[in-house]
Amino acid sequence: MTFVNAPAAIGRFRLERRLGAGGFATVWLARDDELDSLVAVKVLADNWAGEADIRRRFVDEARLLRRVDSDHLVRVYDLGELPDGRPWFVMTYADGGTLAERLEQHPPPWSAETVADLVDAVADGLTVLHRHGIVHRDVKPRNILLRSAPGAAQGRAGWPDGGRAADRALLGDLGIAKDLQWASGLTMPAGSDGYMPPEQRTYSADIGPASDVYALAMTAGRMLALTPPWPATPLGRVLAVATHPDPSERTASAAEFARALRTALTPWLHPAAAPAAPAPQRDVTSRLPATQRPRRRWRWRGRVVALGIALALAAGARPAWALATTRPLSAADDKVSVRVPRSWQGTAGLTFPGADDATSGSRAGGDGRTVAVAFDDSHHEPNEVYDLLGVTGCGAATRRPVGVGPWQGQTWRFENCAGGTTLDEVVLANPGTTEWTVWLEVRSRDGDPDLTKVLATLQISP
Prior knowledge:
- The chain is α+β, with helices and mostly antiparallel strands.
- Helices cover 21% and strands 26% of the residues.
- The relative contact order is 0.08.
């Protein structure tokens, strides 16, 4: 295919076909015969050649990309000028096209694994840009390019679900990027509808890394077939914090958002396991004074969601208590239960933290070891429940995410408690509903009872 006024070559790069064209530039697929490789060559459109500001911005994009280096950013290899004065630069060729094209070919929602991997990759690229003081300002599917890994088969059918190993995401097009090192004062409105944060829609001095976090979250939502208002689930709350209207209230960094998103997707990534490391998430309401936080109704409404949860016991030696004859420790008329040794004495009437119903849970124990379980039929944030526990007599808590089947939550571990015991406080909520929150407390000595094995016996039924 030929184009009017298209040169046969640019520098030593022989043009093969046009990859795309926008309002300011055209991108060509070219071959570097000396290195026997394919590259992309971006050329300023001839109708802008005489505009000094546009020309400067075009060259700045090449220099910014040259200044940074990441496997998830487009790399620039050369810069030059045509005989008519138009600048051009040579960059990475992404043979997989753009994320926008893939979304057209494979309508969302996409698999959790694909979304998490792509967000991780783009977040890595953004982290490098932000470390160099650069804000992209136009993160969107059309500016996320996909490149086959070395040696991988190209054009795999069934992508995205079948092409994870073959594709690498590259963030490109820094045409409207902002270099915070040199910029000052207000920034003109810029960006793309559907991905542009509020501060980019007006003249603003608030442009920063949080602006790219917003756009990345909107891109993740697009792959998951979700749009604001976000659902009232852990996944929805991760997206809500990342797209908060106030940049200062958003997730702190692209890397933190990627970790939080992967944690929220854990039930679909690893249905029977919790993530290995904590993934911080921000709860906007936790920053408000207590008097301004939304009030929750802690009451039993007599509505129960039928759900059975059974986890495989962890491999290896089992603590002595688990080898003994066991019995269920039930909460609220056997609606929720865990297994405890039959010899343990039980205490009924335990109250779910903050609730006014004294029959929502029970506790059993012996020799300083106890297990307690309770539940509320409303959905509550784990942090909110934790604030009501008021644990004393222990060292500082360490927190990590925990997943049990489709449920997600947090566990807080307190060590060096009275009597040499360890206390685990677990709060779980079903991300797919607005109801049901389970609280589990395990006080152990020398790892007995083991929290993982107690969770493995958790049962919830009508």
